[in-house]
Design goal:
The complex is a heterodimer of chains A (160) and B (160). Chain A has 160 residues and is α/β, with parallel strands linked by helices. Chain A is 29% helix and 32% strand. In chain B, helix 4 links the parallel strand 4 (71-76) and strand 5.
């Protein structure tokens, strides 16, 4: 079942790439005591994501933080190495935390998984955005496959 | 069960990144009537692969072709966007065909899967190399996790 407004983010282990390699990070580490803008997408280096979704959050990072967001998280069912390489390719710097859900733990626990096996992508995450305050979902938007409308940084800014 | 010397490569649908986006390619298209050097690895952009395995085949592409190889294939359980981005990052050009087994179709059918779910990478493929002649496996090497020894381009050259 898909996560809803008012739900708590499920506890799962995720990964980030550091200078020393991939390091585990829990959802509690990410969300506890903070207001977090999180957006998810079907894959690093894919076209809609590369061309619009991630850069939108990078470019609006300061504006989101001015509205009370403490951290911005980009999440995909890719491993930490791929998320790190994509971050570098997109000049993300430290504006957005690139979080790897390579085993689809959060995508499945939040009911945001989408089976793209027929297209050769395996199980991925739907394109979504959420504002999460101290682990509680405050807003949730999901885009249909192949579209990019409700989950942009610009839409999130207008809702904050 | 893991594929063996003398076995036929199973029929599976794979993907490559073209100028027009991801394109499907079957194992029959890749292997039929050709002598193919194929190597597989746990993931694009991972340190061992980036630092040794793929560049070894890029650098030895001409030497392998001089020994009768028609096509060199790099395969991983990543999607075609990631494989394309990695090929570009590593300046692969047209020396090595970067083939995406994003749904692990080939990997599971050949019994070469490696469950890295605990490490946040999901199901991947073992590090392997094969020489395949007209779809029949002529040689097969598999490396233990964390090593590039038996599956290098240099080892393959030594066996041809």
């Amino acid at each position: 079942m898909t996560i809803s407004i008012g739900d708590k983010i499920p506890s799962v282990e995720l990964y980030v790439l550091t200078d020393d390699g991939p390091v585990a990070i829990s959802t509690d580490d990410i969300f506890a005591g903070k207001k977090v803008a999180v957006f998810g997408l079907p894959g690093a280096f894919t076209r809609t994501c590369s061309a619009k979704h991630l850069p939108g959050f990078v470019n609006n990072a300061d504006a989101l933080k001015a509205k009370g967001v403490d951290a911005i998280v980009c999440l995909a069912v890719n491993d930490a190495f791929v998320m790190g390489a994509w971050s570098k390719a997109q000049d993300v710097g430290d504006s957005v935390m690139m979080v790897a859900d390579g085993s689809a733990r959060l995508a499945k626990a939040a009911g945001l998984d989408i089976d793209m096996s027929a297209k050769g992508f395996g199980l991925r995450s739907r394109r979504f955005s959420m504002v999460v305050d101290d682990g509680e979902v405050k807003s949730l938007n999901i885009d249909e496959p192949g579209t990019f409308e409700h989950t942009s940084a610009e839409v999130m800014l207008s809702e904050l | 069960m893991t594929i063996s010397i003398g076995d036929k490569i199973p029929s599976a649908d794979l993907n490559i990144l073209t100028d027009d986006g991801p394109g499907g390619i079957s194992t029959d298209e890749i292997f039929s009537g050709k002598k193919v050097a194929i190597f597989g690895l746990p993931g694009a952009f991972t340190p061992t692969c980036s630092a040794q395995h793929l560049p070894g085949f890029v650098n030895n592409a001409d030497a392998l072709k001089a020994k009768g190889i028609d096509t060199i294939v790099c395969l991983a359980v990543n999607d075609p966007f990631v494989m394309g981005a990695w090929g570009k990052d590593q300046n692969v050009g047209d020396k090595v065909m970067m083939v995406a087994d994003g749904s692990a179709n080939f990997t599971k059918a050949t019994g070469l899967e490696l469950d890295l779910t605990e490490k946040g990478l999901g199901v991947r493929c073992q590090r392997f190399s094969m020489v395949v002649d007209d779809g029949e496996v002529k040689s097969l090497n598999i490396d233990e996790a964390g090593a590039v020894e038996k599956t290098s381009a240099e080892a393959m050259l030594g066996e041809l």
